Amino acid sequence: IGLALLLPAGAPYVAWLGQIFVSLLKLLILPLILVSIYASLAGGDDLRRIGGHTLGYYATTSAVAAALGTLIGLALSRDLPAGLLNLEQAVSTEGGFSLDRLVSNFIPSNLFASLAEGNVLHIVFVAVVAAAASRRIARHHRTPLLDGAKALDALLMQLLHGVLALAPVGIAALVYASLATMDWAGVFQLRSFVWAVALAAVAHALVVMPALYRARTRRSPWPLAAACREPLLTALSTASSSATYPVSKQALEDFGVSERVTSLTLPLGATLNMHGSALYQSILLIFMSQLAGVDL
């Protein structure tokens, strides 16, 4: 941070270090998701229980994040002058709800295309279906598949250990490059919006989520937060849930969370449980409506 403020011209000379770190993480993401979900669920009997609890938790916490963003957005946008934006009426050519789009978002038609596009949700779907199907085949067929998946998962995790050794340098380079190229004048002009997003994010991260963790586990949330400092820094510097997945998986398993749980919940969370997006989009909609003179 200090280098970004005092010597912003040096950022391009170290940005490539951060790009290498992110590229190596992204290289491991999809194969790791595919084999880890399969390896953890193919031999287990609690797929339905883990999946049901996960989806229910994600739906609830995402709704709470959106509601919190809406309340803070309404509170901090009141002093904005109305009508500063002259927005034309947008006409949608796609119509309303489309079952075809919903199906295509969840179910892939080409596995290799999904891998090339980096579609995490498609890979999760394939891995879960393959794990469920493998539990119905004969044991002498299932065992080699499961052993191979576990061996490949071990190999990918070993590669991840090597990548994470670069984390201090990679994260520092990413933060340096991001802050050095930031338009601080533009941020100052949008300070009320920035304060609203920051306040909502801090309240959700330091009040709502710790309260849920304490209510569910009867434990202090701060040891878990300390164990997740590296995933949090990676998320902050890359702005990518998917790129943070390998780091989060390693940190949570080191903390004591079961691999079967992390292998299913983290990939789903990277695509379905985006609290930051729920907060941000709620506040953005309210501020844009206020500036356009639209009464909400």
Q: Would you mind describing this structure in some detail?
A:
The structure is a single chain. The model has no long low-confidence stretch (mean pLDDT 81). The chain has helices at 2-6, 11-42, 47-76, 99-106, 111-117, 120-134, 139-164, 167-180, 184-189, 191-217, 222-227, 229-238, 241-255, 259-272, 275-292. It starts with a helix and ends with a helix. The radius of gyration is 22 Å and the shape is globular. With 296 residues, the protein is mainly α.
Number of strands: 0
Helix content: over 70%
Mean pLDDT score: 81
How many alpha or pi helices?
15
Q: In a few lines, what is going on in this structure?
A:
This protein is mostly helical and 296 residues long. It has helices spanning 2-6, 11-42, 47-76, 99-106, 111-117, 120-134, 139-164, 167-180, 184-189, 191-217, 222-227, 229-238, 241-255, 259-272, 275-292.
